[in-house]
Design brief:
Largest sheet: 6 strands, mixed
Shape: globular
Mean pLDDT: 96
Oligomer: single chain
Strand content: 5-15%
Strand order of the largest sheet: 1-5-4-7-3-8
Number of helices: 9
Length: 231
């Protein structure tokens, strides 16, 4: 990565990839502080890792070589891929998370994250629809990076899908039809309410209730069209 300063703190927790890289998964660390999170990701007993960690003051820590399979996503699924670890680069963003006092992500952190994301997705040709949160690929288990993550900032730089805001129209799908459309978009719908909450957390974070309504239907329909129109 040219022009991105990094600190090396290599983790032993990785193995060989079985798929080419087509995804980027963003997480929060969900631990009290950065050092605890980095130490845990480097601990062989934890059996977890990530390729990169971005601290709140904007430091990028490199932990697993990109050509290796980091253990960041766990049991997960996205757009037909069930071995998300093999197909993705994982970035952990330091934040206490919902368990330890979830808070907004500092500007310095996002300013460091954006060029890292840009560099990775450019080199691998990762599409905006495959830049996802942990909650997108594991909706029944995870909430990160959560409703405070500034997806809109990434979307304005074409580093994520935008939240559709223009020309929205409720297709009046039944709940079953909505879930089928959600599955077509990419989500695992085995736990329907969890999948709906994950979708809302990502694309309508001001109301995360797991209830399918007209706004959810309209947003999903727009996302399934070739060029969703956002701010």
């Amino acid at each position: 990565m040219q022009g991105i300063p990094v600190i090396e703190r290599l983790s032993p927790n990785f193995d060989e990839r079985r798929l080419p890289v087509t995804m980027l998964v963003l997480h929060y660390t969900g631990m009290p502080d950065a050092q605890s999170a980095i130490d845990w990701l480097a601990n062989p007993e934890s059996r977890v890792s990530a390729h990169y960690v971005v601290t709140e003051d904007g430091q990028v820590v490199h932990m697993v070589p990109e050509d290796k399979r980091a253990w960041h996503a766990g049991q997960s699924y996205w757009r037909g891929i069930s071995d998300v670890n093999s197909a993705s680069i994982g970035i952990e963003i330091v934040n206490p998370g919902h368990e330890w006092g979830y808070r907004p992500f500092p500007q310095a952190q996002i300013d460091a994250l954006i060029p890292l994301v840009h560099d990775i997705v450019t080199r691998y040709g990762i599409t905006r629809g495959n830049i996802v949160g942990h909650s997108d690929v594991a909706p029944d288990r995870k909430q990160d990076p959560g409703e405070l993550f500034p997806w809109a900032k990434l979307a304005r730089l074409r580093l994520a899908l935008p939240r559709p805001t223009k020309y929205l129209m409720d297709p009046l799908w039944s709940d079953g039809a909505f879930l089928l459309a959600l599955e077509r978009f990419g989500y695992d719908i085995k736990e329907p309410e969890a999948a709906v909450r994950a979708f809302q957390r990502r694309f309508r974070p001001e109301m995360i209730d797991g209830i399918i309504d007209g706004e959810c239907r309209a947003i999903l329909l727009a996302l399934l069209l070739p060029k969703p129109q956002g701010d």
